[in-house]
Amino acid sequence: MSSSDSPWWAERYSRLLAVDRAFGGEIDGLAEEQADFIERLAALRPGERILDLGCGAGRHSILLAERGYRVVGLDLSADLLAEARAAWARRHPDQPGPTWVQADMRRPDLDGAHEACIAMDHSLGMFDDDADHLEVLVAVGDRLSGGGPLILELMNPYFWAHHAETRHYPPGALAADAHIVRSYRFDADRGRIEDHVTVFRTEGPPEVMPVQSLRAWTPPEIRALLSAAGFQDVEVYGSDGWRAPTEPRPLDPVHSAWMWVRARSTG
C-alpha cells in the first residue's frame, strides 16, 4: 500500500526505527521494572507460556524469556520483529529465545493456549473503531487458558488531558545525528492521544512521521470493553508517575501517566 492509504501504524514504527534503533524501545531499567510488575500482577509461574501482544522490538518478551517463561512475541511489523531477533541474538547468541510471530493482532495466527497475555506501551488502542479492539480482545480470550490473566499497560486519559506538551530532543537524546521535536495532545472529543514526531537533520527537509493516534479509555470504558469481550474480574491500577509501580496502587488521575489493567479470561 502507498503511504496515502496505509494506516499510520503500518509505516510509523519502521520509519522511526530507521532514524535510530532507540525508537524500538531499549532494554533498560524501566523495562526491567515493567517486567517485575508484570510477574507480580499476573502471578506468573516459571515455564508458563506468555503472549506479548504488539511486542514491537521485543524488550519485554526478551526480559521475560530470560526469566524462564516461554514467550511468543506477536507484531505486525517485520522490521520491529527483525530488531527483536537481533536484540536477543546480541544478548544470547547461542540460545533459543522467544517465538516471534508476524500477524495482525485482530487475527493472530497462533497454536495452543497461553497462560497469560500482556500488551505493553499502549499496544492496544491503535484502531479507529472499538469494534477492532473488541475483536483483538475476543481473539486473546480464545487463546488464553481458563482464568488466564490479561495485563494491559495503557495511557491514562485523565493525566494526558492536562499534559499536552512539545519537547525538543537534541542529537544524542533520541537520535544520534538528528534533532527530534515531539508533541503530545489529547483529543477529548475522540478520546485519543496523539503523538507528533518531526525529525530535523543537518541536510534535507524535515521528516514528518505519521501521527500516532491511540484510543485512550477511561476505567469505566475499558471495563465495559473487556466485559463485552468475555473477561471478568477487571481491576485498574496506576503507575508511579511514569514508572511502573512496585505494588498495585490506585489510579491517580493527576500523577499516574499510565494505567495498568488486569482481567481474567473465562475460556
Describe this structure in a few short sentences:
This protein has 267 residues and is of the alpha/beta class. It has 2 domains: 8-156 and 216-264, 3-Layer(aba) Sandwich (Rossmann fold); 160-212. It has helices spanning 12-19, 29-42, 59-66, 78-91, 130-142, 157-160, 219-228; strands spanning 49-53, 70-75, 99-102, 116-119, 149-155, 165-169, 179-187, 192-200, 207-208, 212-215, 232-238, 258-264.
Order of helices and strands: HHEHEHEEHEHEEEEEHEE
Fourth CATH level, the homologous superfamily of the largest domain: Vaccinia Virus protein VP39
Low-confidence stretches: 1-5
Pairing-aware structural class of the strands and helices? alpha/beta
The span between the termini is 37 Å
The name of the CATH topology of the largest domain is: Rossmann fold
Number of strands: 12
Quick one: CATH class of the largest domain?
Alpha Beta
Name the strands of the widest sheet in spatial order.
3-2-1-4-5-12-11
How many structural domains? Answer: 2
Reported for the largest beta sheet, the result is: 7 strands, mixed
CATH architecture of the largest domain: 3-Layer(aba) Sandwich
Shape assignment: globular
Q: How large, in whole angstroms, is the Cα Rg?
A: 18 Å
On the 0 to 100 scale, the average pLDDT is 93
Account of the protein in words:
The protein is α/β, with parallel strands linked by helices and 267 residues long. It has two domains: 8-156 and 216-264, Rossmann fold; 160-212. The chain contains seven helices and twelve strands. It starts with 11 loop residues before the first helix and ends with a strand.
